Backbone:
């Protein structure tokens, strides 16, 4: 009659945690799963080795340890790469905004501050949509008198806009939020002034899971 040998509970628990650790791709809070998986798998390996053959579970512990280590590395890597992609996309969108202002195209720049679903096509008919008396004409008047906007429109291509950093990159279930900080240098008589602009870019997810376009929701300008 074969002798009964118990299976290490720590080894089995480590294996289970190693399997479910794939959830690390969903949220950083779940990075705790592979950490626990590594600990329990290591405990399972130790107990199996210390039992001198009286306990089973070494293979389960090894597989659990391997899975936990893989997902422990994959979680932060995936999160960092996604944040990098968000930052890159937001910077590309902000660059269009700065370029429109440098080219004295305030209507196009103003459209990038609108919700994507309310945004008009940036075509030859855009000027007609801003005819006097329309809602957008009133909004444009406020837009061009803003300190940052008026500064960039006034100096055009002589103003230099240099990316500094991204103080905040945030991903939630239904939206992304990225803040971008820029140094704005422009001539002021014989000297050059340096000011700083912080843009807040927002992007929502549609009901079907697709991502809408970015929106420059607001900005700060300090001199």
Residues:
């Amino acid at each position: 009659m074969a002798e009964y040998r118990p299976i290490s509970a720590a080894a089995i628990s480590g294996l289970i945690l190693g399997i479910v650790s794939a959830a690390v791709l969903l949220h950083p809070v779940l990075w705790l799963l592979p950490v626990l998986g590594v600990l329990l798998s290591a405990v399972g390996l130790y107990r199996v080795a210390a039992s001198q053959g009286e306990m089973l579970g070494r293979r389960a512990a090894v597989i659990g340890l391997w899975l936990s280590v893989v997902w422990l590395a994959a979680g932060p890597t995936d999160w960092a790469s996604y944040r990098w992609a968000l930052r890159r996309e937001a910077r590309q969108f902000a660059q269009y905004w700065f370029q429109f202002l440098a080219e004295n195209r305030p209507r196009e720049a103003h459209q990038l501050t609108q919700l994507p679903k309310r945004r008009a096509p940036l075509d030859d008919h855009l000027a007609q949509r801003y005819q006097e008396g329309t809602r957008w004409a009133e909004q444009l008047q406020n837009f061009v008198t803003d300190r940052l906007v008026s500064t960039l429109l006034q100096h055009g291509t002589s103003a230099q806009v240099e990316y500094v950093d991204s103080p905040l990159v945030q991903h939630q279930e239904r939206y992304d939020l990225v803040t971008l900080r820029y140094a704005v240098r422009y001539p002021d008589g014989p000297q050059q002034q340096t000011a700083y602009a912080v843009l807040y870019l927002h992007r929502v997810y549609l009901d079907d899971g697709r991502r809408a376009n970015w929106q420059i929701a607001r900005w700060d300008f300090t001199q």
Notes: The mean pLDDT is 88. The two ends are 86 Å apart (CA to CA). Residues 9-81 form one domain. The chain is about 45% helix and 20% strand.
